[in-house]
Structure formats: C-alpha cells, structure tokens
Design brief:
The protein has helices at residues 5-8, 22-29, 47-58, 86-91, 104-110, 121-129, 150-153, 155-168, 173-195, and strands at 11-12, 32-34, 40-42, 62-70, 76-80, 101-103, 135-146. The chain is of the alpha/beta class. Helix 8 (155-168) runs antiparallel to helix 9. It contains 9 helices and 7 strands. It has one domain (5-195): Spore Coat Polysaccharide Biosynthesis Protein SpsA, Chain A, CATH 3.90.550.10. Strands 1, 2, 3, 4, 5, 6 and 7 form a 7-stranded mixed β-sheet that branches.
Length: 206
Amino acid sequence: MTDNSSFQESVGFVVGTAHNGFVDAIHALGLVGLILNSDDWYSANDVISEMVRFMEFGQYDVSHAYVAQVDLQGNEIWRIGGEVSKKQLFQKMKVAHPSCFVRASVYQRYGDFSSGFRIAADYDFIMRIWSKVKVGFLPRRIVQMQMEGVSNGNPVKSYKESMAVSLIHGKGVLPAIASFYYECIKHYLIMLARIFGYRNIHKRGV
C-alpha cells in the first residue's frame, strides 16, 4: 500500500481488531496508527508514505487531511477536513478521522477510543487529545469514504452521541442541546437538497 517499503516499518496495520485491543495491536506492529473503515479507501498508492513523511518532517503527533465523501458510483459529493482548533471542535466534529495518522505514544499517554460510544468514539478521542499534542494538517485529499456509513445512516443517534461528547468535555448544556437540534435540521435539509442534485464540494486541496 505504500511506494516506499522503509515507511511500512513505521505503520501498524490492523484488520478486524476488537475495539479494546486496538492500542495493543498498534504497539506491537508499529509507531503510527491509522484507522480506515471497511467502506473507505485511500485515493492513491503513496498516501501512507506521504503522510508518514509529513509527520516526520513536522514532528507531528497527529496528522490529518481531506476526505471525500462519495456515492455508490464513486462520485465526490462532499469534502470534509481542514485545520481546526479545539474551540471549533466544540461546535462539531470537524476532523475527518479516516485521514488521521496517530503516533502510538499518543494512545499510550491519553488512552484508546472509548467503548462507551458506538458512533462518536473518534470525536471523544479527538477532543481528549487535540490541545495536548502537536497536530499537522496536509491539504490533500487522501481518503474516499462512502456516504452510507454508520453515522450517516443514524444521524440522530450520531448527533446525540456528539452532544454527549461535547458535554463530557465541558460544553454548556444549553449550547450542546442547541447544536444537536441545529445539526439534525441541517443534516436533513442537506439530504433533501442532494435529492435535487445539489453538490457542495470544497475546491481546496487535490
């Protein structure tokens, strides 16, 4: 999956690993952990090696990039990702987790994904570490992700879990509830717009 075998020694590949065993597997296999869901794929063969080089050059603990959400025909519908602050993360999950590369030392220091969340475990993890580690963003589309994922198929449950995460990490109750209803309404309006052919593809990145 890489164009340079030397980088494979720095990356852990885990297939079908149980939720609580992820960190142990990363520790055993390599220095950098990455999470790619079964319906996601990398946009090019050099993605892993480029991201590892990017992390090494900037001495980043975590790196991320753009992710393209695509339909069943592979057409790009939406592009997500970008540089984001902890304050912006309180609004909603703005980091495309399939693009994240995380050093094993981060899991050692701050823990694994919480098994208490079915959908928003990535959001909880990102909120837990974001202001404590060095983060780098590469403005390149590196992952294509099908729209029919768990969070897209269960939007209300997804936003409820996201609301719980934001509350755990210090967001006020009323702002959290307001964000929940806002995101639910926006989600269904966007779905309706897409039925009529609306597309909103960010032109940043490649």
